[in-house]
Write a structure and sequence with these properties.
alpha/beta, 102 residues, single chain, 6-stranded mixed β-sheet, 24% helix, 2 helices
């Protein structure tokens, strides 16, 4: 469940790990930061945003740990960004043929 922590800033704390998803509201929708960990919690976040009439317009991963680069189809096909280190790490991971099982 998303909770407001400041004007235009919503947060979801994962029940799986001590990790937060942050949604920053803008005119066109939200920037979703560190989108979540489990499929169920990401679906909950997506549903909460839909109920608020706030589409996801972009995603951002703060660092390349697996629990910060995940995404859910319910967030949509939107641009996703990360730090240079994060992007390089994910590109490296995906350059290996066995990246999905890893």
């Amino acid at each position: 469940m998303l909770r407001q922590v400041a004007v235009g800033v919503l947060v979801h704390e994962s029940e799986f790990l001590q990790s937060n998803t942050v949604a920053v509201q803008g005119r066109a929708g939200v920037l979703l930061i560190d989108a979540g960990i489990t499929s169920a919690e990401m679906a909950t976040i997506a549903n909460d945003l839909q109920e608020l009439g706030q589409p996801v317009v972009a995603g951002f991963s703060t660092h390349p740990h697996w629990d910060h680069v995940l995404w859910h189809a319910m967030f949509g096909e939107v641009p996703r960004y990360g730090t240079a280190r994060c992007v390089a790490s994910i590109h490296d991971l995906r350059s290996h043929t066995d990246w999905r099982p890893a």
